[in-house]
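Entries read sequence, tokenised fold; example below:

***
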Amino acid sequence: MNNYIKLNEDRWNNVKNDYTEPLTHEELEEVRNNPISVALTVGKKVPKEWFEKANGKKLLGLACGGGQQGPVFAIKGYDVTIMDFSKSQLQKDDMVAKREGLKINTVQGDMTKPFPFENETFDIIFNPVSNVYIEDLENMYK
């Protein structure tokens, strides 16, 4: 699958689906008033205990742009960086952050290439099922 870059670009920049629609103000207000709840895949919520066990609140959202998970983490007090291949998905995080007065750092990057961060920069890496879109997982897991 040598054309994964083009495939991913088309998939995330030009398609509307559940993962490309940013949260509304009303949805984020609901998040603000309830315990943290995010999913790694459809129908499978991450146990909140996973977040409680983290050493701190510096979080990398890896390939989860789109104005959904990043704003949830930011509204819950995490120091959020979202790294995604899709510029349009990152723009949605920027838009929601601006609209809601949240701080989200967005970085366009390819998880198959060296990351633009020092080792041990983050306390948590949140990576929804995006690894199925790349051939070689070695760099991502490093």
